[in-house]
Design goal:
Length: 70
């Protein structure tokens, strides 16, 4: 019974230890890396917005034909 309690207490302790090691290993991006990531995210927003616009552009006439302009 005592061993089970020790094992259950060890799980959060290991999680916190691994999390601390991970955070200590992480570094902030430098300016060039930040700009590169920002550009990639911006291009993704533009691409997804364009795709959404064209899907909506095609959906409106198709919907009007199917519904019959009610």
């Amino acid at each position: 019974m005592s061993d089970q309690i020790k094992e259950m207490a060890e799980i959060p302790r290991d999680f916190l230890k691994e999390g601390t090691l991970f955070l200590n290993r992480c570094t902030k991006p430098d300016k060039r890396e930040f700009i590169k990531i920002s550009q990639a995210v911006g291009v993704g927003f533009v691409v997804m917005g364009t795709i959404g616009y064209f899907v909506k552009l095609i959906h409106i006439p198709v919907n009007n034909i199917l519904v019959g302009g009610a």
